[in-house]
Design a protein that fits this description.
single chain; four-stranded antiparallel β-sheet
């Protein structure tokens, strides 16, 4: 049984016109590190019956303004200084990492879909 989606999900579909779509909130507490990795989208592929990932897109929406110690790196390029509502996106198996070396939680919305 699928849970019903909140109304605000449709507003993201207007910006990110994915064919298949999932979302999740992520709270990264201070002291957390997500080492460099490439997403495999195993759960997304299982739910949507996919075997390959080349059409999968991952988007991270920042829910709050950047705070000292909050960090994202995409293929060796640091990402800091974001504002609430800014987003980054990548296809397939893009190398990235995240860390929270600050004093506050880092909140993001993770969108996954296919194009």
């Amino acid at each position: 049984m699928r849970n019903s989606e909140p109304d605000w999900v449709d507003s993201f579909r207007g910006v990110f016109p994915f064919e298949r779509f999932s979302w999740s909130f992520y709270r990264m507490p201070p002291g957390s590190v997500l080492p460099a990795h490439r997403d495999t989208y195993d759960r997304f592929k299982l739910i949507h019956g996919l075997e390959i990932t080349h059409s999968v897109v991952r988007t991270i929406v920042f829910l709050e303004d950047w705070d000292s110690g909050h960090y994202l790196e995409m293929n060796g390029t640091p990402v800091t200084g974001w504002r609430a509502g800014d987003w980054v996106s990548w296809h397939d198996d893009f190398l990235h990492l995240a860390a929270n070396m600050g004093r506050t939680n880092r909140y993001t919305l993770q969108l996954t879909g296919t194009v």
